[in-house]
Amino acid sequence: MLKLFRPRPAKVAAERLHAAAVARARAPDLYLDLGVPDTPGGRFEVLSAHVYLLLARLKGEGPAAADGYQFGSRFWVV
């Protein structure tokens, strides 16, 4: 019965990928050293670039790419 309440491994992986992409997109060096504007538009572009690169990598991973759907769902819902 307890197994019903555990999150699926793909969902856990997607949440970890989402957290990592958001954390990297918030890194100060992107804004200070690379000159990305610290505006909502600039932040969205940086996050979108990280998500695109992550999904491109997942696409080449074969079976692990199944987590890409979960990750994409997690990214756009949040």
As a whole number of angstroms, the C-alpha radius of gyration is: 15 Å
Content of β-strand: under 5%
Low-pLDDT sequence parts: none
Per the principal axes of the C-alpha atoms, what is the gross shape?
A: elongated
Mean pLDDT: 79
Alpha plus pi helix count: 4
- Derived from helix and strand composition plus strand pairing, the structural class reads mainly alpha
Listing every helix as H and every strand as E from the N terminus to the C terminus, the arrangement reads HHHH
The biggest sheet, with number of strands, parallel, antiparallel or mixed sense and barrel status, is:
none
Helical fraction: 55-70%
Distance between the termini: 29 Å
Number of distinct beta strands: 0
Task: Provide tags for this entry.
0% strand; mainly alpha; 78 residues
Quick synopsis:
This protein is mostly helical and 78 residues long.
Describe the structure.
The chain is mainly α and 78 residues long. It starts with 8 loop residues before the first helix and ends with a helix. 10% of the residues are buried. Helices cover 69% and strands 0% of the residues. Helix 1 crosses helix 4. The model has no long low-confidence stretch (mean pLDDT 79).
Q: Which helices and strands, and how do they pair?
A:
Layout: H1 9-25, H2 28-32, H3 40-59, H4 66-77
